[in-house]
Amino acid sequence: MLPEITVQLYSVRDQAANDYEGTIRAIAAMGFGCVEPAGYPGSTPAKAAKLFRELGLKAPTCHGPLPVGDKKNEVIEEALLLGHEAIITGCPPNFRENFASADAIKATAELYCEAAANAAAHGLQVGYHNHDWDLLDVGGAPGYRIFLENTPETVLWEADIFWVAKAGRDPVAFLKEIGPRGKALHFKDGVVSATDTFTEAETESGKIMVSDSSPFLPAGTGQVDLQAAAKAATFAKYIAVELDSYTGDMMKAVQESYHYLTSTGIARGNK
Fold first, then answer.
1. Which residue, 53, 106, 160, 270, could crosslink 31 as a Cys pair with Cβ 3.0–4.6 Å?
2. Which residues, 6+ apart, have CB-to-CB distance to 15 below 8 Å?
3. Domain-by-domain residue ranges, the chain?
4. Cα–Cα distance, 245 to 68 (Å, whole number)
5. Dist. CA 71–CA 77, nearest whole Å
6. Is 203 helix (H, G, I), strand (E, B) or coil?
7. Sign of the alpha-carbon torsion through 252, 221, 90, 73
């Protein structure tokens, strides 16, 4: 069975901040049966959960903080309220430093192991979403492999294949390498060859990376070979549409991405 299509709601953060309910209703009307929240601009988790139920939307994954420390129970309670299967970190605290050295990566892996144990007690998983800096070599070898070697396979890796390609790695080979960790994926497209400068910015959802231009494009119109990646995504249960930014109409870009991914047999939706 094909993976279910979902959408990372960070893509429509501006629209949601102005009219959360209207934006989510429009997303559902496009045919999406799943969404991936990243904060709730213009709403609250409780209100969003109620709206999702009304529209028959699932939220199997989210981008949010790990269930560790003082807010462990709060994070888990919110995940259970929304019906999440996995809590995935989009841009966790100190995200660049976390992959700057072998020791830093091992410490990061230890934190995810702790979070995974806390989550598992409630039937949940945790996961990591990559960008490009966390796929660079550390000490002459891929740093991400240190993370994989020091965490169980139950810690997911939500591969963002645009960023995999941007880091100079082969998305097909990468998806094969992460194997069953690739339960949820981001099939992002864009101009991989663009020479952008990315800087950190704070948002309601936490830290993000902001480009000095917008290399992101609707799925199927950029330089990422989504068809080849789909053939390698043998463990995928959910495939997400995501555009970090877009110079045109974002809602139209999301709809075009939905149409491409579903009409080409990469993922399935409700239309």
1. 270
2. 23, 250, 251
3. 4-263
4. 30
5. 10
6. strand
7. positive
The pLDDT, as a whole number, for residue 197 is: 58
Q: In what helix (H) or strand (E) does residue 89 lie, and over which residues does it extend?
A: strand 86-89
Residue 4 has pLDDT above 90, yes or no: yes
DSSP 3: P
- pTM over 0.70, yes/no: yes
Distance, CA of 83 to CA of 208 (rounded, Å)? 25
Q: Between 3.40.50.1260, 3.20.20.150, 3.10.20.340, 3.40.50.720, what CATH number should domain 4-263 receive?
A: 3.20.20.150
DSSP state of 2: P
pLDDT at residue 112, as a whole number: 98
Residue pair 238/8 in contact by the 8 Å Cβ criterion: no
Which is it for strands 156-158 and 198-203: parallel, antiparallel or unpaired? unpaired
Over residues 70-126, the pLDDT tens digits come to 999 999 999 999 999 999 998 777 778 899 999 999 999 999 999 999 999 999 999
| Residue 242 token pair | 């995501």
pLDDT in tens, 141-168: 999 999 999 999 999 999 999 999 999 9
| Mean pLDDT on 219-246 | 97
What SS3 state is found at 226?
helix
DSSP 3-state of 67: coil
Torsions phi, psi for 23 (to 5 deg): -65, -45
Beta strand 86-89 with 61-63 is: parallel
Nearest to 126 by CA among 108, 144, 138, 141: 108
Residue type, 150: N
Is pLDDT above 50 for 205? no
The total number of residues shown for the chain amounts to 271
